[in-house]
């Protein structure tokens, strides 16, 4: 038996060595994905979808840990300080590329304590109006804003959010003064848009799509690189205005503590990119108003750098502060 077992063992080891990295047997420690939002939102659903797919590929359970609060800072801090080698962050710009330019002191260093793992999705923003609005194009909005400085309003999902800053970016590029009206989330902002209390809104495809489907709202433009089929004939903001720099990726990616072993990072990155490239992933993300934008650690790192530079400029130029 000993003579038979040794060749079998060697053969098994050789077979395992030829498997893709994600198919190698994993340690028994569950992977924990920390989500900086409450359960039920698009990002939470994305995390749970990824978790289910990763469980099969990594051969270990995946736990979704919702840590909402402070615009994602609570979750990012928890991951930056994690030492178990199995905790990662479902990252968005709020705590990584926006907060550092709005807050003088963060409990973590997003540049040195968090590292990119993979880019998975984009949740595009729109400039939209209620169905009865006299504005038919973005040019109409900018023209009116030049005539009535500081009187044309845009609603956002809160001070210092990507919704707020995207509206500020448009105003700065268009050379106009739009009046920012912050809300605590998309729901109350949309209520006031439909009620006529605000003229326009900068919000995500996922938030505005139900209103468009029922004929209550219209999308004037999308802050995306290409027109979005789900938004009908709406052009991109860049196409509609001729302004440069109106492509704003509202990215979703996975980041990890800088101390996580390189082998574990590479393995997780490969698995995430494979999941992201699945046809069913594209379909599932589209249902959430998201676009799957598959990319490895380098791709996410490039997006994060560009995003940070964009918001640093907008915040400085607009003198934007948060309470």
Concise account of the structure shown:
With 323 residues, this protein is of the alpha/beta class. It has helices spanning 2-17, 42-58, 73-80, 93-102, 138-147, 162-174, 186-195, 205-213, 237-241, 262-276, 279-287, 297-318; strands at residues 31-35, 62-66, 87-92, 114-122, 125-130, 153-156, 179-182, 200-204, 217-222, 251-257, 291-295.
Description of the structure:
45% of the residues lie in helices and 19% in strands. The protein contains twelve helices and eleven strands. It has a six-stranded mixed sheet with strand order 2-1-3-10-4-11, sandwiched between helices. A five-stranded mixed sheet has the order 7-6-8-5-9. Helix 6 (162-174) links the parallel strand 6 (153-156) and strand 7. It is globular and about 60 Å long. The model is unreliable at 1-27 (pLDDT under 50).
